Amino acid sequence: MESRRIKIRTGPDILKWGKSTKGTFLVKEAYYLATRQEREEEVLDWKQIWRNKWWPKVTIFAWLVGKGRILTWDKLQKRGFQGPPRCSLCKQENETQEHLLNSCPYAQHQWDEVRNLFRKSNRDPNDIKQTIFHRGKGKFSCSIVRRIWSLAVGFVIWFLWKERNQRIVRDKNNPPGKMWEKIQKAIRETILAENWEEEEWKTNPEERRILAKLNIEYKMIYPRKERHQRP
To answer: How confident is the model over 176-198, as a mean pLDDT?
Structure first.
């Protein structure tokens, strides 16, 4: 809600509008008040994308998805390009952003793998933008597992896009299982390249299961850190 400072004056009450010195109605200010809350929510949404600290190219791609600007075939055809409108991943439906990254059976396989890994999901099956913007922290106690949770959605949409382009340009296909292996590898490499404190490896049994599934172990990092600390 819009807050106002109240000034106490003597004399009869006077009806005034907004912050105008004359107290007159201004369409500009009314529009500002009507749209302010919506704009604040949008700012928070976009901050969520940049805060995730994905690979830069993944972050930029997620930003384009949020804007609805990736060049799927429905958009290319509007620009006059000629080509098959079918999704190159499933060959069943016409390719749109929502289908390619969310509802395509090939994409659904990757989202199912994410759900199986974490045994929970924040995916919106009807809106990929909501999945990107409102991917929560997952309520994990381990910082590393929370990081993996935040990385997963970015890598899923990025590798789906890469697979789509590879099939069009190189006519080379990866089965769904191979795609999931690539996503896991990207997550593992990102985690192992980042700096972690020893206490951040404290996990509960469920979190240890997640790390084991991804082949991420404490000893992969700390022998290296000990060597660097030697005089």
So the answer is: 95
